Amino acid sequence: MPLGLAPELDLGNSFRVNPKSNVPTLLFSGTLDGRTYLESQSEAIAGFSNATQVIVKNAGHNLFMSSNKIQDTIDLFMEGRRIKKTVLTVDLPDMVPN
Q1: What is the predicted pLDDT for the residue at 78?
Q2: Considering only CA atoms, which of 33, 24, 29, 31 is closest in space to residue 44?
Q3: Residues 25, 31, 33, CA angle at the centre, nearest 5°?
Q4: Helix, strand, coil % (nearest 5) of the chain?
Q5: Tell me: the pLDDT tens digits for 3-39?
Q6: How would you label 59-80 residue by residue, b for 16+ Cβ within 10 Å and e otherwise?
Q7: How far apart (Å, rounded) are the C-alpha atoms in residues 49 and 53?
């Protein structure tokens, strides 16, 4: 939104500071994600002291339905169990139209 039209909607620089948290957090990053790059996500969560980042090779932004491995990882996290595999590999998406 062009803030010049409604400058009162700008939340200011303090809003743009990266968050800090010690709450257990599970984050998934797809190596083919064209919206949220791995480096950008790592930078954004630098203040999360209790985060587990899982890299999903061959997955894009909407990676949650790409493999049962992802749901299995979510289940482990929700059960309070340790995530041992922080890199998952899924099949490459079919990029050729039928």
Answers
A1: 97
A2: 29
A3: 85
A4: 30, 20, 55
A5: 567 778 888 888 888 889 999 999 999 999 888 888 8
A6: beeebeebbeebeebeebbeee
A7: 11
Provide the β-strand partners of residue 26: 52
The answer to whether 57 and 83 have CB atoms below 8 angstroms apart is: no
29: its two tokens = 């990053």
**Tokens 């899982």, residue?**
54
Mean pLDDT computed over 76-98: 89
The tokens describing 27, both together, are: 């984050």
Q: Region 66-88: what's the mean pLDDT?
A: 94
Cβ–Cβ contacts within 10 Å for residue 26, how many?
Answer: 14
